[in-house]
Queue: 3 jobs
Job 1
Amino acid sequence: MSLDVPTELLARAERGEVADEEFVACVRDSLPYAWTVISGVARQVDPDTEFADHEVPPPSEAERGQLLRALASDAIRGGLERHLGVRLAFQNCHRVAAFRPDAVDGDRYRAFVSPRGQLLNQSPELRDC
C-alpha cells in the first residue's frame, strides 16, 4: 500500500470527492522522503528559473519506493503538481525534475523527457534501480 489513509479521510472519499489539500497532506505524511525531494525541487523553480532537479540516489530501497509510488501514480503526481505549481518529470528511479508550467513546451523540458535524454542519463550503477 502506498498511502496511509486516515479513517476519516477514507470515509469522506467513500462519500464523494476530497479536497486536493487533504489528499496532498495524506501523501506528505505517507511518503515523507518523496515529499521532501519533490517539494524541495519544486521550491527551486521560480519566475527566473524554469527548471530544477534532484539527482541524488535515495539512501535506501524504501525511499526509492516512495519516489516510485509518488511519481508513478497519476493521482499523486497530479495532486503534487497542482499543489506545488510545477510540472514534474522523472528518470532513473530517482532523478526528479520540476519545471515551470510555461516551460513545458520548451527545449529543456522536451530534452529531459525525450528518449535521448533518458538514454544519456544511464549509468551501470543505476542498472538495477
Note: Residues 32-43 form the longest helix (12 residues).
Job 2
Amino acid sequence: MDANSTPMSIRKLPNELERVIFLDAAISRPANIPALILVAWRVKHWVEPLLYHIVCLSRIGAPMEGYPRFTIEVMLRAIQRKPASFFHDNVQHLCLNSGSTAQQAAILTACTGVTNLCIPNHSLESHLDAIDAMAPCRLMFLHDLSVSFGHSMFRNITHLSVEDVGNTRDEGSWAADLHLIPNLTHFSFYLDNISRELGPPIAACPRLQCIVMHCYNNLEMMHVEEIEQAWLSNDIRFVMIRWDRHDFFGDWQRGAATGQDFWVLAEASIAAKRASDLHPRMPKFSSLRLTAARVSDCVPTAMTGKQ
C-alpha cells in the first residue's frame, strides 16, 4: 500500500502534536492566525486567543511586521460576539489611540485582564472605573493632571509614562505626588517646556530605578546643556532618549511582543553608568538615540547588568 492510499485515520497526526504545530505557527506570525482559524474548529479553539494577546488600535502607523491590524469596529464586533471571559483572559497588551469615548469605554470594560495599557492621546478621567478594575502594571497616557497619582488605579503600576505634562498645574506639585504610586520603579515623561522645578521632586521618589525624559525633535535637543546643568545630571538613574514621534507605536508594539523597548535601552545605559563608578570622569548624564537595532543590541546588557 503506497502513502497516497493510506487511510486518513492512519495518516492523521496525534491531536497534541497537531496542536503544538499550529500554536508554533500562530506565535511565530500572529498575522496568519485569521487564516489558521479557517482550517478546523479545533484549530480555531487553539489559536484564536493568541490573536488578541496584543491589540493595537491606532490610526497612526502600520502594525509591526507579522502582526495583524485591528480596527475599533472589528474589536467591538468581536466583543459583542464572545463571552466576557474571553477578552479578560486573552488581551494582555492594549494600545487605544482611536475611537470615541463610548467606544473606548466598551473596549476597556471588556479587556479587564490587560497588564500593559497605552492611551497616548487621551485623558484617563473618562475611564477611571474601567482602568481601576483592570489595575495594569504598565501605563502610558496623556496626563492632564486631573487624576491624582494617589488613585487606586495606579496601585499595581511599575512602569509609568506620561505625555505633555507640566502646563496645567504647578509642575513641582505633580512630580512630588509620584511617591503616592506604591510600586513605581520606572518613570518616563515628555514636556513641551523645560522646568528647573521638576528634577528634585522626581529624584526624591524613593523607589524609582529608572527616570527617562523623551525628546522628539532636534529643536528640543538645543536644551540638552540646560537639562544637564539644571536637572538630574548627577543622578545615575536619569536618561534622556531622543526619537521621532512616528516611532512611538512601533516601540510600544515591539515592547509588547518581545520586551525590547525604550526601557531596555535606558536600563542598559544606567547599568553602564553604574559599572563606571570607578571612572569619575565618565559623565553621569545620558543622551541616547532610540532605534530598534540599538534596543535589540542592549537586551543582553539590560538582562545581565554588564556592558
Note: The beta strands are 54-58, 93-97, 116-119, 138-142, 159-163, 186-190, 210-215, 238-242, 286-289.
Job 3
Amino acid sequence: MSIQFPPALRAGQRVALVSPARKISAAELAPAIETLTAWGLEVVLGESIAGDHHQFAGDDTLRRRDFQQQLDDPSIRAILCARGGYGTARIVDGLDFTGFSAHPKWVAGFSDITVLNTHLLALGHASIHGVMPVLFHQAGGEMALESLRRALFGEAAQLIEAPAHPLNRPGTATGALVGGNLSLLHTITSTASQASFAGRILFLEDLDEYLYHIDRMMLHLHRSGQLAGLAGLVVGHFSDMRDNTIPFGTTTAEIIDSYARLYDFPVAYGFPIGHEAENVALVVGQTVRLAVDGSGALLN
C-alpha cells in the first residue's frame, strides 16, 4: 500500500486544537497557542477543548463530533491533539475519513493518539507521532518542539541518535515507521485501527505500567504474529515503570529483548521517543533507515 503524505503547512494557514481523550482547558493551552501563532499559524479551538465529562473532554458524542468537524473543514490544514490520557479508541470507529482521504491534512499527537496514528496508517495516510500542545514548553523539550515544527512544515528531518546499549542487535533495515504506545498497540489488535507491521520499523514507548503488563503485551504481539515480519525495532522511553511486591525480576529492556531475540531484525534501545521531555517527532508511514552497530544507533 502506498502512503499519502499531507501537504506541508505554510504560514497563514489554520490549525485546530482538539482533545479526543482527557479533558483540558484553554488556559492550559495558552502558551502553546502563542507558539503556534508565532509560527505564523491561525489557531482554532475545537469544541472538545471546553468539554468536561468526568475524565473526558466531553462525552464520546461531543469528542467525535469535534474531531469530525476538523476532518471535514477544508480550511483546517492540521489537527493537533492537545493531550492524551484515555478515550481516543472510544470515538475512532464513528469517524468518517472519506473527506479526509480526498484532502489529507496532518494529524499529530502521541500516547493515546497512537490509535489515530495507526488507524490513519491502516487507511494509507501518514501522521505525526510527536509532542502535544499541553507539553510544548516542558523543561528540556526544545528539541521535541522544534522537531514537530519541522515535520509540520515539511522541513528535512533531523538525524535521530541513540547511544550504545548492551541489548542492541546490530544491523541495518529500511522500512516505513509504525508504532507508538505499546498499551494502545495491544488494545487495537484485531480492530480496524490495527496497521500492519510487516516490512516496517516498529517503534515502542510507554508510561506508568507494571513490568508484568509489559511482558503480557509483548507476549501478545509475539503470539499474534505481529513481530514476525518486522524490518527493525526501535525502543523509546518506558517511563515510571512499576513492579509488584514480589518483583517481576527483569527490566523493561530485558522483557522486550526476550521476545525480540526470537527474530533476526536489528534492535535499538534508548531512542528519545515517548513520555519524556526529549520526544522527537516521527512521521508514521515515512520510510526510514535504521543502522545499529557497536557505537549506537541512527534513524534517518
Note: Residues 232 and 265 are 5 Å apart (CA to CA).
